[in-house]
Amino acid sequence: MTDFNNTRWADQEFAKQYRDNANIYIVERQRMFGIMRSFFRHFVSGKKNIRVLDLGCGDGIVTRNILDVDNSISATLVDASDDMLEKAKERLKGFENADYIKATFQEIIEDGLPVRDYDIVLSSMAIHHLTMDEKSRFFRAINAQLRPDGHFINIDVVLPPTDILDGWYMKIWEEWMTEKRAELKAYDEPSADVIARYKDGEENQPDRLEDQLDALRAAGFRDADCYYKYGIFVVYGGTKGEAVYFPDI
């Protein structure tokens, strides 16, 4: 994983541009949030003392979506950016059952987190910054943070399995952004430039969906599956079980 301070995400202006245009950049973003809310409602909501872990929380929008389902939760939000954590605090103003931790994913892989036993771990558009080896180790770290039968769900981008599909998926993405800008009467930069930036960014390390599902299973997750897919944009996750493979680290 590229050191956070050497990525564009450490640039507050770049991060602001992303936040302001995320509904343009991310295909079916609101639908994917809806799937996450549905998952939470079906598998988690209704329990007592629900604890949520939001990894790579950004401006807190994922936790905000969960609060729309159940505002009795407690949440721990983790991000490597002080600016993002401040924006999350602003978004969640009035929600008192929240802790905020500044940490990179690499630090979590190496050192874990101080609090365990979460009912659900959530992430959105962040884990693709890890290499496949780091993803495998990160999934193990997530599994260790969950209560028995706890859940993990991730919104992210994945690597297409073939170049032919990659070409089509990039076209789908470009068309989405162009149509969304017209709908919102917004303009920030050409769609092709966004895609080129994603492709060229050293911090972007997407891997095949199948490989990530296999890594979840190896880390001890059962019922690992893809819940939604649109081109490179996916929602996937699983339920805590017993790890079956623990490579030396």
How are the elements arranged and paired?
Blueprint: H1 12-25, H2 29-43, E1 51-55, H3 61-67, E2 74-79, H4 82-91, E3 98-102, H5 105-111, E4 118-124, H6 132-145, E5 146-157, H7 163-184, H8 191-200, H9 209-218, E6 221-230, E7 233-240
Parallel strand pairs: 1-2, 1-4, 2-3, 4-5
Antiparallel strand pairs: 5-7, 6-7
Compact summary:
With 249 residues, this protein is of the alpha/beta class. It has helices at 12-25, 29-43, 61-67, 82-91, 105-111, 132-145, 163-184, 191-200, 209-218; strands at residues 51-55, 74-79, 98-102, 118-124, 146-157, 221-230, 233-240.
Fold and architecture overview:
The protein is α/β, with parallel strands linked by helices and 249 residues long. The chain has a single domain, classed as Rossmann fold, CATH 3.40.50.150. 44% of the residues lie in helices and 21% in strands. The protein contains nine helices and seven strands, in the order ααβαβαβαβαβαααββ. The protein has a seven-stranded mixed beta sheet with strand order 3-2-1-4-5-7-6, with helices on both faces. A hairpin with a 2-residue loop joins strand 6 and strand 7 (233-240). Helix 5 crosses helix 6 (132-145) and helix 6 (132-145) packs across helix 9. The longest helix is centred in the C-terminal third of the chain and has 22 residues, at 163-184. The relative contact order is 0.15.
